[in-house]
Amino acid sequence: MAILIDANTKVLCQGITGSFGAVHTRGCFLYGTKMAGGVTPGKGGTKDANGLPIFDTVQQAVDATGATATMIFVPPAFTADAILEAADAGIKVICAITEGVPVQDMIRVRSVIDEMNGGASTPPSKRRIILVGPNCPGVITPGPRTNANSMTGEPGAPFTDASKGGGGCKIGIMPGYINTHISQSKRGKAVGIVSRSGTLTYEAVWQTSNLGFAQSTCVGIGGDPVRGLNHIDCLELFADDPDTHGILMIGEIGGTDEIDAANWIAANRKSGRLKKPVAAFIAGRTAPPGRRMGHAGAIIGGADDTADAKITALKAAGVSVAMSPADMGKAMAEAMGG
Question: What domains are there in the chain, each with its CATH number?
Fold first, then answer.
């Protein structure tokens, strides 16, 4: 069990013939993801280096393969249209990896996606379309590692084995080998990870794996100010997933997403819906107010945008907060009583 994707998810790559699209399609394919093909206008009817079919449109790809998820590696100027094309073709999970997408484009995309989902307040479990990103590392649901593969894997052999309890599904740029399937974890517990930072996602996975935990699903929601899934959306999905035993949330300065998440955690602890331990880390404590730090959304614009304000709110909600990125795994272990 996992959120958003699993071993049976069929995945497309929009921009499969581009340099980044080709490299990461190969990585997902070797991880064990059921890559169904890709889309590059004008190259329909050909195949990529992995033998995957290429189509001119997403609709053609969906009709031919039955794909329900896509990862987008097209230039920023074309990302909005790529997202909307995938949504119109009936794709359920859309992971826009591209960074540098204009905010105005994403405002338009969110408006259309929200309308297709029946409104912005529709719970993520009931949405027709799930948008992840843009400017994100994607989503991964780990599968059991094969005995034959090392950290890099043997050429042509999948890194995860469906015969050992469900193969893995990797959509995007996350490194697969650091993830752990619950069947191979020492503690027999799986952590769900949601993060605005790609690099810190990998660090959190590495730390939790080294401490004996598995990961149910890791979601990189991206750091742009206008995006798809947010922290609360993922918290809701993890809270309802019976095979996620703890939640690790990684935020950063800018916006009020983490403050809203802290309020959600407090309210749902009180109501009894959220019974799982939650740990968190907030990046950017030393960032000067008014200066953008890396992500387009990482800029302090008000009192609730600061790292200290978010840390205070999370602690008040009963969240175990790591004060250093080196302690994210430790905070999760402490929250889970280990």
Answer: 10-132 (3.40.50.720), 178-335 (3.40.50.261)
- Kindly report each contact of residues 236-240 with a partner whose C-beta sits within 8 Å and lies 24 or more positions away, as own/partner: 236/123, 236/124, 236/125, 237/3, 237/4, 237/124, 237/125, 237/192, 238/3, 238/192, 238/194, 238/276, 239/268, 239/273, 239/274, 239/276, 240/125
Q: Which residue has the tokens 């404590």?
A: 285
295 is catalytic: yes
Amino acid at the residue 111: S
Provide the strand spans (E) within 127-213.
130-132, 138-141, 169-172, 190-195
The pLDDT averaged over each successive group of 10 residues in the chain (338 residues) is 90 97 96 96 97 98 98 98 98 97 97 97 96 97 75 59 72 95 95 95 97 97 94 98 97 91 98 97 80 55 75 97 97 93
The gap from C-alpha 217 to its chain's centroid, in whole angstroms, comes to 8
CB atoms closer than 10 angstroms to residue 326: 11
pLDDT in tens, 38-85: 999 999 999 999 999 999 999 999 999 999 999 999 999 999 999 999
Catalytic-labelled residue, pool 181, 231, 245, 295: 295
| Token digits of residue 77 | 């100027």
With H, G, I as helix, E, B as strand and everything else as coil, classify residue 35.
strand
Cα distance between residue 8 and residue 216, in whole Å: 15
Buried b (16+ CB within 10 A) or exposed e, 41-57: eeeeeeebebebbbbee
CA distances from 115 to 111, 112, 247 (A): 6, 5, 30
3-class secondary-structure state, position 258 = helix
pLDDT, tens digit (0-9, with 9 covering 90-100), for 310-319: 999 999 999 9
